[in-house]
Amino acid sequence: MTDSEENISRPPRRTGQKISLIIGFISYFAAFITFLAALYKGYTIGTENPIFASLAASVVFFVGAGVVLHVIGAVSLPNLKIPKNDE
């Protein structure tokens, strides 16, 4: 680790990041529930039905949104503000 890396402070997660992380986990849960619904509908009405296709698309959406929100909430960004010298 170099001297410049030691001076970079990493603040704790902000409120927006915590909310993003929670909503990301909710999106994962919604993807799981929608996946179960797609399996059930695929078994009962068949996979050629538009309802099954919309449920499968919803699974992809919820997983994608969950990944993005999880990354936003879990990343530890350094504080890159330039300190003001009031001399």
Can you put this structure into words, describing what you see?
The structure is a single chain. The chain has helices spanning 3-6, 15-44, 50-74. It has 87 residues and is mainly α. It has one domain (14-74). Helix 2 (15-44) packs antiparallel against helix 3. The longest helix has 30 residues, at 15-44. The radius of gyration is 21 Å and the shape is rod-shaped.
Helix content: 55-70%
Poorly predicted regions are: none
- Cα(first) to Cα(last) distance is 30 Å
Domains (count): 1
Over the alpha carbons, how many angstroms does the gyration radius reach? 21 Å
Mean pLDDT: 87
Helices and strands in order, then pairings?
Blueprint: H1 3-6, H2 15-44, H3 50-74
Helix pairs in contact: 2-3
Summarize the structure.
By secondary structure, the protein is mainly α. It is built from three helices and no strands. α2 (15-44) runs antiparallel to α3 (50-74).
